[in-house]
Amino acid sequence: MPPLYLATRNIGKVREIKELLSHLPVDILSLKDLPEAPEIEEDGETFAENAAKKAEAVLAAVAGEEGVVLADDSGLEVEFLQGEPGIRSARYAGEGATDAANNNLLLEKLTGVPLHRRGARFCCVIAIAAPGKETVVVEGHCQGAIALEPRGDQGFGYDPLFLVPAYQKTFGELSPDIKNRISHRSRALSQALAHLEKLLR
After folding, report:
1. Do 144 and 182 form a contact (C-beta atoms < 8 A)?
2. What Cα–Cα distance (Å) separates residue 108 from each residue in 1, 14, 79, 86, 173?
3. pLDDT tens-digit series, residues 114-166
């Protein structure tokens, strides 16, 4: 199989995607393994635009004639905040913001808002690019709510705040096995899997 390149430097995303694709006999590399990979400005207006841009830029830079590139653009959309932080999820509190800073800003904006008005969803868009092929884009969601305070230390990003009603736990409290079964990323990857396997084989 040709290698699969993940168009991200986010260690948490790399870990989750590798776990979700662990059944594939393929070498999975991220931008951490590719110092020659370009920095890609995420200036699209949608998750889909950003994911496709990242996949195609990495394909052009490092994948050569055989490699396949998978790019993930994802974020949190809060109903009370009209979809914020959305595509700015990773930099909600500013460029280079830490997870803690982003979480604190979100909680600040929801001060006094009761739990039943804190509905939210995680959105993940995956783009897959390969030489001579049209880029394929798929999307997955996970519905939940924003907890009143951070809970749990699993995962990354907004996971300690994202409450899953069926479990009454946040992503930060759920085991990786359960999270990987129900998450927005796993739902997007399940849609992409048949196309991905076809390209890799």
Report:
1. no
2. 48, 29, 15, 17, 22
3. 999 999 999 999 999 999 999 999 999 999 999 999 999 999 999 999 999 99
Q: Where are the domains of the chain?
A: 4-200
Kindly give, in sequence order, each residue whose CB lies less than 8 Å from that of residue 198, ignoring residues fewer than 6 positions away.
none
In tens, the pLDDT along 61-98 reads 876 677 899 999 999 999 999 999 999 999 999 998 99
Active site residue: 33, 72, 73, 153, which one? 73
The answer to whether the CB of 62 falls within 8 A of the CB of 5 is: yes
In CATH, what is the architecture of 4-200?
Alpha-Beta Complex (3.90)
Check if 43 is active-site.
no
